[in-house]
């Protein structure tokens, strides 16, 4: 082990050293480099990556401190079919996860890892999810042979010396091992060992598969730990809505993919509401860790330090705050690169470049189609920006606060063309858990698969819950009982359509009008009508000043079709049956109660 200069390592932590040595013996890197988080280190890593072509420097006059990276064409999104939960019992992983026994997982991945870092450097990245030293936070150590991963982890998490110092001699850290190996899809595995607090990811170089602090630790492993330790790890944005008096209400919200979570987290108040003086403060756009405090209420932190956002469609209209956030110190992955090292993506403001090299590394011109007549994209639809939280113009000043923010409302969202009204409030916590457990989206024409097909995604956690979803719902119910003052739970649907297939609600900044109603409900103010599905706004309690929204449209937005909801209840019953005995009885009781309310309506 002398080749790795163990005596020079910046830690005395024996458990950590033993583990790094063991992993190095398996992967056989030529050298080991410990990440300290300094600016000098960043400059060295960037210049090395520029030398190998792993990064391309963007036009610095336009994109100061920004770099470009292209991943392999077969490696552009999370690979859910190769993502496994490796627990001793299959029951613990549940029907919502791919499962493998831990021994088999370690063996299969070891075969791929063995010798895979020969000729490469293994970086040791100590990182903290959550502010270093906060009672919410968890420490991880990621070993990786990718500079791109190190540079992304430096943005997405708190890394380096302060983390090692806080860890001290403890062996309470998530052991994260990542190797690119040969980037072969047939030799790719994303394995989670919740019972060992470990993650092994091999054969990928992209996003959620390799930035192991994000989906792997902060959701899959953390959800498992959260159940054991009595807290929540959720796929939720966190935002503060400051009312005209300066009082800020914080909400946490879960939406399935492609429902504009980042846009909502960075919402800009619309013209019609500006005069009231609302302001939005972004705490996070993807993940919330929440704990019950001594006041009997729920408090939340964003465990991340950056945004890993979808680029296409981002522009000054959809998300001006995101556009400002990504102007500097950002890594762009898989967008279009122009000959003068500028970048472009579908939906960007301004002119479309005459030519460029697209996400796949191929020459591209506007309007290109492939041999089958399909449009060739400049930027991959899942191309990403990685940017520091602090660059967001509306970042909350509580983002580094060890205590987090108090959550007054939890919002679940779905994409439903006809069924769900614009907003409704659950009757109580248990009913709110049912609302979250049954949230769903219908496929749009832009998505692969049958248009209109309903996909249920409980609490938007289907791909991220690190254990049995039935047990997860029971955990939600148990947590509710422990809170004296639980947050109120709401459901929103920005996507209701009229008979011509046009959106009834304008969305984007106008969603603040719905948040205003939610805030009023939390303050015990706005009136609501009791319906079989929950409390729905009385039309005159939603402020639509300045919106051209005819009263019939507002009525349609808030209406409930009993017949459609009876069908929905039957579909929920089918969905629940796939969870077998792990599904809490309370969920069945809630379903029966919904059916009874509908039959009386
Ligand atoms: O495709 C990936 O690897 C990234 S997925 C992702 C990234 C940021 C935030 N959310 C998600 C998601 O899939 O929910
Ligand atoms: Mn997400």
Throw out a few tags for this protein:
Phosphoenolpyruvate Carboxykinase, domain 1, binds manganese (II) ion, nine-stranded mixed β-sheet, 3 domains, 31 strands, binds 3-[(carboxymethyl)sulfanyl]pyridine-2-carboxylic acid, alpha/beta, Phosphoenolpyruvate Carboxykinase, domain 3, 601 residues, Phosphoenolpyruvate Carboxykinase, domain 2
Could you write a compact summary of the structure shown?
It contains 17 helices and 31 strands.
Q: What is the percent of helical residues?
A: 25-40%
Q: How much beta, percentage-wise?
A: 15-25%
CATH fold assignment of the largest domain: Phosphoenolpyruvate Carboxykinase, domain 3
Distance between the termini: 74 Å
Ligand types? 3-[(carboxymethyl)sulfanyl]pyridine-2-carboxylic acid, manganese (II) ion
Number of strands: 31
Low-confidence stretches: none
Structural class determined from secondary elements: alpha/beta
Give the averaged pLDDT, no decimals.
Answer: 96
Question: How many separate domains make up the residues?
Answer: 3
Please report the number of helical segments. Answer: 17
Radius of gyration of CA atoms, rounded to a whole number: 24 Å
- Main beta sheet: 9 strands, mixed
Query: Which outline best applies?
Result: globular
Overall CATH class of the largest domain = Alpha Beta
Under the CATH scheme, the architecture of the largest domain is Alpha-Beta Complex
